[in-house]
Structure formats: C-alpha cells, structure tokens
Design goal:
Length: 418
C-alpha cells in the first residue's frame, strides 16, 4: 500500500479526473497524505491553457521531483506536451489519467478494503469475489495486508452479482487480488464456473469485466476460461494477465511463479477461442536484477504479443519486501528503460485503436459521463470509445448503442451512434 500526494490544476474536468484517480487508489488500499514529503508517490495533474501555466507546471514538477520518491505527471500538459518535461530532465512518469492508479501500485496486486462486499457506483457494480492471493512476489507489500486466498462460494458470489444487477448495475466488475486463483483454497479453481453461472443464471442486460488474473492462475484453466468467454456475450472479451517481465531469470527473482512460455500459452488459448479481444498486461521496468538483455526480452515480448492495453511501471522499493534489500539500478537506467518501453507501448496501443477506425461496434455499453458533453463507452472487448455531444444523441450511462468508430487518440477511440 502506498502513501500518495495529489495536486490538481486547471478546469473542472481535471478535478473530475483527479477524483476518479483517487477513487481507484482508495479502492486499491492506498491512502492520501498531507504533503509530498510524506508520500511514496506524488501525482501532478497538469493544465496547459497558456504559456505562463506551462512554465508553472514545469516549475512545480521540478519541486515535487525533489520532494518525493516518485513523481507521476498526468493531465492536459502531460498528454499534449509530455516532451516538455523530458526536455527539462524532470524525472517523472508521464501517464494518461487512466494509467495512474496502476502505476502507483508498483506492479502489486490490488488491495481492496476490509471484507469482500459489493459496491454499486452509478451503473457499475464492483464485486470482489475473494480476498488474498497465492503468490509471494518479492517486490509486493500487498501480501502482508491480505494473506492467502479466501474464496466465498460460487453460490454466494452469484447472489451478490444478481443483487447488483437488480439494483441497476449494467457493468459488473469482478475484482480480487488475483481472480485467476479464485477457489484454489477449496481445492479447485472456479473462476470459469462462476462466470458461466453469472451469465446463465442472472436475468437482465449487463456486461461483465474480469479483473486482474496472474498468468500462473489462469494457465491451468486457460482453455476452460477462454471457452466461457467465447460462449457468453455478457463477458467483455478482455483479459488482464500481468506478465511483468519477458525474462524468466527476472521472473524468478520476482518470484512470479509463471514463466514466459506459460503466459504465451494463455495468450494462444484466447487467440484460438476469440476473434476480437483485448489483452491487457503489465511490465515492471528496472527491477534490481534486470540486465540490458532482460530488458530487451521484455521489449521483444511486448512486440510479439502486442497487448491492446499495457501498464508500464518503473520499479520502486516497498518497505518490508525482499526486493527492498536488493541493490537497485540507477535512476537514469530505470528512467531510460521506462521511456523506451512507454514509447513502444504507445505505438502498439495506437495501432490497435487505429485499426478500429471505420468499423461498427455493436452493443457498446455507455459506462459513465466523460468530459464536457461526452460519454465513455466500452465495446465487446472493453475498448474505450468516446461519444461527443451525448445529449444530442440521448445517451446516458446504462444505455447500449451501436457505434461507428470515426477516429482515435492513441489510447481510446471516438465514435458516432449508428
């Protein structure tokens, strides 16, 4: 769990994005502190309305860089003029708003609050299906907070999902430290069984997004899981399987349990079962034992599998973990590797969204309000499509709509109702 400090500049839209960032961070068990000096990570949500504002943003970024261990810069200036921070040698991760919460976790498992009770947020129902995990990653402090996996029964989770749908949820988010090992403590992995029963036993029109599942947990049920995805339209064809490195040596030092070959076999199983789906994965850059050759293997794996959503995290030590005692790499080395992978990420993700332009995506779900008069929608593979002038089209969260993809902005698309 990390202590964070966040500063927001600019318009109401920026403040709204910061609220969403904070909501995700709180859901993951992180907590806010009063100033950057007390924080593990500082987040600067920037504005770029005039030149004077740009200079102020650069100045504040440099100040925060010297006051905290890690700095994340997001917001309008980061997205439109990220090179300005690099040109000024600001040691920071330049990220889209949506990527900030994952970057703060340092590649760790998500850490929800006490218990596993569902939450309804607008039309989104959040259902933690279990607590804890089966991993013992050398860099992760979450394990100290959550312990081993504890899985409520399939019947109990189906009833919680049904209650969320009946309360108005049109998107169910299945969450946990590692959804792939759900049921392992009872002697049998049951994620595919749970998903099948949610889709077949609950009345109503809704979608289900499955949260993070480590490759090792998924590997043993990869074919059964891919088959469930292929059979049920209610499931977003989306899998978040964080590989973290393309080097088996580094994975061993991370104690990640899986090998690269197992990750690739998971990807192959979903490729065989699904024509159109989204692979989401994570990479930790600059782990203490990562060599240039190891980093090259990670870059090669990214190019080979071409995930449509990629979280790149620069390694930082967490107190009480075994990795904290390892001799770390220099800050410049981590910065250079992070920059190289982030640039490759933008190329890969941009290509995926560019390929969508001109296509029509059926039954997209309007999930939430966007900035201004826009809404954020998700297609069948959980890819984000923004519809402007939502009022003109009569679109509200919870609606389903067919969209023609008219353009893209690297990490999301734009669409018009058909």
């Amino acid at each position: 769990m990390a202590r964070y400090h966040i500063e927001t500049y600019g318009c109401t839209s920026n403040r709204g994005e910061s609220r969403q960032i904070e909501s995700a961070l709180r859901d993951a068990g992180h907590y806010r502190v009063d100033g950057p000096e007390q924080a593990d990570v500082a987040i600067l949500n920037t504005c770029t309305v005039v030149e004077k504002t740009e200079r102020n943003m650069l100045r504040r970024a440099k100040e925060l860089e010297s006051e905290t261990a890690d700095l994340i810069v997001t917001g309008c200036m980061a997205l439109a003029q990220g090179e300005e921070f690099r040109d000024e040698a600001v040691d920071a991760q330049i990220l889209h708003w949506d990527d900030v919460p994952t970057a703060v976790t340092n590649g760790e498992c998500p850490t929800p609050g006490p218990g596993v009770e569902p939450v309804l947020d607008g039309v989104v129902g959040i259902l933690p299906i279990a607590r804890g995990c089966m991993s013992d990653c050398s860099y992760c402090i979450t394990k100290h907070a959550t312990g081993k996996i504890e899985s409520p029964s399939v019947e109990e989770n189906v009833e919680k999902a049904r209650a969320l749908v009946h309360a108005g949820a049109t998107e169910l988010r299945i969450t946990g430290q590692d959804t792939g090992v759900y049921g392992w403590d009872t002697g049998e992995r049951k994620l595919h069984t749970l998903l099948d029963r949610i889709c077949t036993e609950i009345d109503g029109e809704f979608r289900v997004r499955v949260g993070m599942a480590n490759p090792k947990g998924v590997h043993g049920i990869r074919e059964e899981l891919a088959d469930v995805f292929a059979r049920h339209d209610e499931l977003y064809d989306f899998l978040h399987a964080p590989v973290q490195s393309g080097s088996d040596d580094v994975l061993g030092d991370m104690r990640r349990q899986h090998q690269v070959s197992e990750y690739l076999e998971v990807v192959d199983a979903f490729d065989d079962a699904l024509d159109y789906w989204t692979l989401s994965t994570d990479f930790i850059v600059g782990f203490p034992t990562e060599t240039e050759a190891d980093h090259a293997q990670s870059m090669a794996l990214l190019r080979e599998t071409r995930p449509e959503k990629i979280n790149v995290t620069r390694f930082s030590k967490r107190p009480g973990t075994d990795a904290a005692d390892m001799k770390g790499l220099g800050g410049q080395t981590k910065k250079d590797r992070s920059k190289a992978m982030s640039e490759l990420k933008m190329d890969v993700v941009g290509d995926a969204y560019a390929a969508m332009v001109g296509e029509t995506k059926a039954d997209c779900l309007v999930v939430e309000q966007g900035t201004g008069d826009s809404v954020k929608c998700r297609d069948s593979a959980y890819r984000q499509i923004i519809v402007r002038n939502a009022t003109e089209h009569g679109l509200e969260p919870g609606d389903f709509v067919d969209l023609e993809v008219t353009g893209q902005n690297t990490v999301y698309a734009f669409g018009t109702p058909v």
